[in-house]
Design a protein that fits this description.
- The complex is a heterodimer of chains A (about 180) and B (about 475).
- Chain A folds into two domains: about 1-35; about 40-170, Rieske [2Fe-2S] iron-sulphur domain (Rieske Iron-sulfur Protein, 3-layer Sandwich), CATH 2.102.10.10.
- Chain A contains two helices and eleven strands, in the order ααβββββββββββ.
- Chain A has helices at about 1-35, 35-40, and strands spanning about 45-55, 60-70, 80-90, 95-100, 110, 115-120, 125, 130-135, 145, 145-150, 150-155.
- In chain A, the strands form three sheets. Chain A has a four-stranded antiparallel sheet, with no helix packed on it. Chain A has a four-stranded antiparallel sheet with strand order 5-6-7-8, with no helix packed on it.
- Chain A is elongated.
- Residues about 165-175 of chain A have low confidence and may be disordered.
- Chain B is mainly α and about 475 residues long.
- Chain B folds into two domains: about 25-365, Cytochrome Bc1 Complex, Chain C; about 375-475, Cytochrome c-like domain (Cytochrome Bc1 Complex, Chain D, domain 2, Orthogonal Bundle).
- In chain B, about 60% of the residues lie in helices and about 0% in strands.
- Chain B has helices spanning about 1-15, 20-25, 40-60, 70-80, 85-110, 120-140, 145-160, 165-175, 180-215, 230-240, 245-250, 250-270, 295-305, 305-330, 345-365, 375, 390-400, 430-440, 455-465, 475-485; strands at about 30, 240-245.
- Chain B has a two-stranded antiparallel sheet.
- In chain B, α3 packs across α12 and α6 packs antiparallel against α14.
- The longest helix of chain B is centred in the middle third of the chain and has 33 residues, at about 180-215.
- The model of chain B has no long low-confidence stretch (mean pLDDT about 90).
- Classes of the chains: A alpha+beta (about 180), B mainly alpha (about 475).
- At the A-B interface, α2 and β3 of A face α7, α8, α9, α13 and α14 of B.
Chain lengths: ~180, ~475
């Protein structure tokens, strides 16, 4: 019987050995799986990018602009071309809104005749300044921080805004030059 | 012939599968269960098998790359010989699979088959249902078009509402900061490797349990399940009145599976493949995203819930639902099996079916969505403008130009987010109309900043004419009371 208990001890050692190796392997595997999250936490996704000359945005109007997402891969195709609404109030005063409705992210459309943004999904409506007007959204449109550099409009962007995201664009803060 | 028998014998000497297969075929089932009510499980298995085949066939061509997926679907639809048909079969197979799995679940529930000793079979079934729905959703994503793109956005917005972990989970689900190449690769891996792997494993164990525990006997009112003696009774039943599964039970399974396959093929042939709709380009914002059929009820729920309830219902609702389903066989593991003596069970199924049906029906209509082009596209019926003064006609123009009809219908066309305006003058006086237009309220935006006084006067003048010929417009009761002698 001592022989059997000896073999059982060997089996336990073997299992323990495999468990340790398994744990060692789990570290890189989990690290790989969470790579997108770990990078995101350092807010490495957010970058200042140019929307082009401010002359494209006449004063008093709201226009659709498009930028190539700063984090993009060659095979992303058109999915990395992100639209946004640029409202030129006057002089250096701008508002740059995300295309995504603050309810569930559908693309809001601007109607200059009634000065409203409307969402085609669940009927969220916003005023010209992005404030919530009606419908299911619990807040106004997401806003990108912006600055004007050498006559070009720059916004800080990189991550799709979602209702739970505590990044800079959820808080209105003064444009930093 | 002799050659085949020799090869068969040679294989069986090594594989030793002949005896267990024969045992499976001959295993006795209660005579009444060789019934048309017991065919849904095998039909689901058949459809799953076809999904595996058509899925592999599509993977031969499909390019799981955000930049190319849409083009490869167009190539499948239009260039590859019968590519459209394989896509249609896979798409319809998905709809049939969800439907059959749901029917199978209802039948199992109403026949009390989840009770002792088949609790684990039920629990595995719940996971199989969840994985079937996960396959339907991830499959919709692989059809990488506008609906898929914005559907992912909706999914991300829901996930982001999880307290604390939400934003990190969004990045994990999307595989990056935006919906792009890594997102599609991730959903491809889930749809093609991960979920099917678990599905095959769980289906295997699910079937094994059916064989080990025996198929649920036909429920008789008054024949109660007791843990103490159920197994003895069941074995007595199969031994005395049992019939071999092959051919007594299996022929109905086979015929029903055949009917389902034929129905799927006919649907695929007649209706063709699903999409893809427009390119997954977020800059194309002239789009009206809609989910696939089996998620329409969720689309309706998200529109109709009060905003403050949305997040709790979305995050806590599924957890409670799952707990209830998993706890069911333990809470109600004994007792009556027959639906004739389980009124609460029948009511649950009916209420659930009516709720899902009503929500789906509403979502097909989606009266809460503004009609984005009604202001420029919907005609104004002549009776609303004929014989009106210039001021009133001007008001009718304001009504069109300010997009009012995106949410308000006139003569049955236009949005239905707000009330129809056909008879609005019978509900609101001129003063009330002015207040409602300028200040909004009741889910209507305020137009105070967007209308000048002249436009407001014209608009209200027009709205005041909107009442049936024989019905007087609304009056201010205090004014008319004062006017009387």
């Amino acid at each position: 019987m001592t022989d059997l208990s000896r073999r059982q001890m060997f089996l336990r050692i073997a299992l323990l050995f495999n468990g340790v190796i398994g744990l060692l392997l789990a570290v890189p595997i989990v690290g790989y799986l969470l790579s997108s999250v770990v990078r995101g936490r350092k807010s490495a996704y957010e970058t200042w990018i140019s929307l082009g000359s401010i002359d494209q945005f006449p004063s008093g109007q709201t226009r659709l602009a498009k930028y190539r997402n700063p984090v993009a891969r060659a095979w992303d195709g058109e999915t990395a071309d992100i639209p946004c609404w640029v409202r030129h109030i006057d002089n250096d005063a701008f508002q740059v809104f995300a295309i995504n409705c603050a309810h569930l992210g559908c693309p809001v459309r601007w109607f200059p005749q009634s000065n409203l943004f409307m969402c085609p999904c669940h009927g969220g409506i916003y005023y010209a300044d992005g404030a919530r007007a009606a419908g299911p959204p619990e807040r106004g449109l997401f806003e990108y921080p912006f600055k004007i550099l050498n006559g070009n409009l720059h916004i800080q962007a990189g991550e799709m805004p979602t209702p739970g995201l505590p990044v800079a664009m959820n808080m209105k803060r003064p444009p930093c030059a | 012939m002799r050659m085949i028998r020799t090869v068969g014998k040679w294989l069986d000497q090594r594989l030793r599968l002949g005896a267990p297969i024969r045992e499976t075929m001959d295993h006795p089932i209660p005579r009444e269960t060789a019934s048309w009510f017991y065919v849904f499980g095998s039909a689901a298995l058949t459809v799953f098998g076809l999904q595996l085949v058509t899925g592999v066939l599509l993977a031969l061509i499909y390019a799981p790359s955000a930049g190319e997926a849409w083009n490869s679907l167009q190539f499948l639809n239009h260039q590859v010989t019968l590519g459209w048909f394989i896509r249609a079969l896979h798409g319809w197979g998905s709809n049939f699979m969800v439907a059959i799995v749901l029917i199978h679940m209802v039948q199992v529930f109403l026949f009390g088959a989840f009770k002792y000793p088949r609790e684990l079979t039920w629990i595995l079934g719940i996971f199989l249902l969840l994985m079937t729905l996960a396959m339907a959703f991830t499959g919709q994503v692989l059809r990488f078009d506008q609906d898929a793109y914005w559907g992912l956005g909706i999914g991300a917005s829901i996930v982001s509402r999880v307290p604390v972990l939400g934003p990190a989970m969004v990045t994990l689900v999307l595989g990056g900061p935006i919906i792009a190449g890594t997102t599609l690769s991730r959903f491809f891996a889930l749809h093609v490797f991960v979920i099917p792997g678990f599905l095959i494993l769980f289906v295997g164990v699910h079937l094994l349990l059916v064989l080990k525990l025996g198929i649920n006997e036909w429920p008789m009112p008054g024949r109660l399940v007791r843990r103490a003696d159920y197994l003895d009774k069941y074995h007595r039943l199969t031994r005395t009145e049992g019939v071999p599964f092959v051919p007594y039970g299996v022929w109905k399974d086979a015929i029903f599976s055949g009917v389902i396959l034929l129905a799927m093929a006919l649907c695929a042939l007649y209706f063709g493949p699903f999409g893809p709709s427009g390119q997954p380009d977020p800059a194309i914002i002239r789009t009206v995203p809609r989910p696939d059929f089996f998620f329409l009820w969720l689309f309706a729920l998200l529109a109709l819930l009060p905003p403050a309830l949305e997040t709790p219902v979305l995050l806590i609702g599924p957890v409670i639902g799952l707990i209830v389903l998993l706890a069911l066989p333990f809470v109600s593991g004994e007792g009556e099996k027959s639906w004739k003596r389980r009124p609460v069970a029948v009511m649950t199924v009916l209420v659930g079916a009516v709720a899902l049906g009503a929500l789906t029906n509403l979502a097909i209509d989606s009266p809460w969505s503004p009609v984005m082009n009604a202001w420029s596209g919907a005609p104004v019926p002549w009776q609303f403008v004929s014989g009106r003064t210039p001021l009133q006609i001007q008001g009718a123009l304001v009504l069109q130009a300010k997009q009012c009809r995106n949410c308000h219908s006139l003569g049955g066309s236009g949005g239905r987010r707000g009330p129809a305006l056909d008879a609005v003058a019978t509900r609101l006086t001129a003063d009330q109309l002015v207040r409602q237009v300028l200040q909004g309220g009741g889910n209507m935006p305020a137009y105070g900043k967007n209308l000048n006084p002249a436009e407001t006067a014209a608009l209200v003048a027009f709205l005041e004419t909107l009442h049936p010929a024989r019905q007087a417009p609304a009056q201010d009761a205090s004014m008319s009371a004062g006017a009387q002698p």
